[in-house]
Amino acid sequence: MRGVNVKKGEPVDRALKRLKTKLDTEGILEEMRRRRAFETPTQRKARKLRSASKRNKIRWRFSNAPAAVSADAPVEA
Q1: Is residue 69 part of a domain?
Q2: 24 closest CA partner among 2, 41, 1
Q3: Residue-number span of the structural domain to which 53 is assigned
Q4: How many domains does the chain contain in total?
Q5: In this predicted model, what pLDDT tens digit does every residue of 17-74 receive, in sequence order?
């Protein structure tokens, strides 16, 4: 069961915001939106390709980043 505890004196809108961010990080809101309407196999394939493209873009960006210079490496000017 997902939920957040409302602390004494805490505004309800702040507790709702915490709940919403919690559900968003777990991917529950996205899944709920996706299941709201029928998705054809073609749409499902396109969605998966889009998400894979985003993952690969991020992976490529960080894998090709220049390596950090270590303290032992000689510095050339």
Answers
A1: no
A2: 2
A3: 12-60
A4: 1
A5: 999 999 888 888 888 888 898 989 999 999 899 989 888 888 887 777 665 555 565 6
